[in-house]
Amino acid sequence: MSDHVGLVSCLWAAWPSGRTRPLEYHTAQLEALGLFLEEKEMGLTRTGYRAVAARDGQDGTSGPLTISFLLQAMQLDSAFICKDPYGVVLIIGPWNYPIYLLLVPLIGGGDGNCVVLKPSEISRNMERLVAEALLSYLNKDCFTMVTAGREEITRLLENKFDYIFTGSPSVGRIAMTAAAKHLTPVMLELGGKNPCYISDTCDVQNVALWVVWGHFINTGQTCIAPDYVLCSVEMQEKLMPALHEATTEFYGSELHNSPDFACTVRDKQFKCVQALLSSGRVAIRGEADEKECYILPTVPVDVQEDDPVMWREIFGPVLPRPSTVAGPEAPFPAQDTATRASTTAVSPSRPSRTSARPCSVPTAGRR
Questions:
Q1: Best label site of 78, 173, 236, 355, fewest CB within 10 Å?
Q2: 128: exposed, middle or buried (C-beta count within 10 Å: 0-12, 13-18, 19+)?
Q3: Where is the sequence biased in composition, kind Low complexity (predicted)?
Q4: In the prediction, which pLDDT does 137 show?
């Protein structure tokens, strides 16, 4: 039987008591989260953690707004729909935004539920900080934490949960398999191979700023980031220098010294991204430092559809432009990959229904 059965059973003992339901309890836990972020701000953002913490987006303003929303969410509406908590919830945090994607699900999942938190072991520094500090701010009878690798997650999932949140396809498969035994609902925060189509009539400078911001934020380790660019050869010739200028504008001329550009989370991820750099012809080449797990923005062009960079989510600071001729009727490459998290078309005019071809690109959400 799982070593975690005693840990989870404590939450099952607390859940029937009803202590998690009153507004005062919810408010106290949210205020405690705010205090945690305030008191641990230096630890969360100092240079040693910048690879995983620099862009988690904690600005200290969400607490009052969240409590205001909580007041609204707890009200019965005119149809008397009762918004009831699930029970005992498991939150497995992804590594790419280890604070944001742990605490945001906690704010929602902790709304009347008992919660088991599992921070990502891949972002080790953040896991250590959260494990050492967070639970001291919360109700210890209703919140608990597990620090473990993938084998321990499998054993943890032998326990029954009422709701599970996690990210990444590999952990998602493990969670879905375990959840099926109890018909437990699961929310997966997944990524994908997200295309970005740029029309010839766009303002190339503005487009370059948007693409650099969207792709290179958090070193490309964002699930809905544009993963590759589709454009004509004519647009490519204008776009490459504009991307170089936009990168300098965001991160400065010495990117390796920029406090706003992070390294990859670990050496395994560095090697996965580095292996993709041989695809196509490099139009913008960034430095790579294996010792520091550092890869600067790189843009390969004339990439072929069967190149490795086109058949998996990159999750790093590499932005390819395939050799496919882009246009309203052009086929999208990588058609056989998993569902995309987003598809973006950049054009000064709204595309017609006939040219948009919404069914040709499988995606979980469209912009």
A1: 78
A2: middle
A3: 341-358
A4: 95
Q: Which residues of the chain have pLDDT under 70?
A: 1-3, 46-67, 69, 71, 76-80, 324-339, 349-367
Residue type, 37: L
Q: Are the C-beta atoms of residues 306 and 276 closer than 8 Å to each other?
A: no
Give the max Cα distance, the chain.
67
Q: How far apart are CA 313 and CA 228, in angstroms?
A: 10
Give CA–CA dist 158/251, Å, rounded: 46
CA angle 131, 292, 38 (to 5 degrees): 35
Residue 187 and residue 105: Cα distance in Å, rounded?
A: 10
Is 189 tagged catalytic?
A: yes
- By the 10 Å C-beta count (0-12 exposed, 13-18 middle, 19+ buried), 5 is classed as middle
Angstrom distance (rounded) from CA 56 to CA 48: 15
Q: Write down the catalytic residue from 189, 237, 254, 290.
A: 189
C-beta neighbour count of 15 within 10 angstroms = 22
* DSSP per-residue letters across 254-275: -GGG-TTSPPPSSHHHHHHHHT
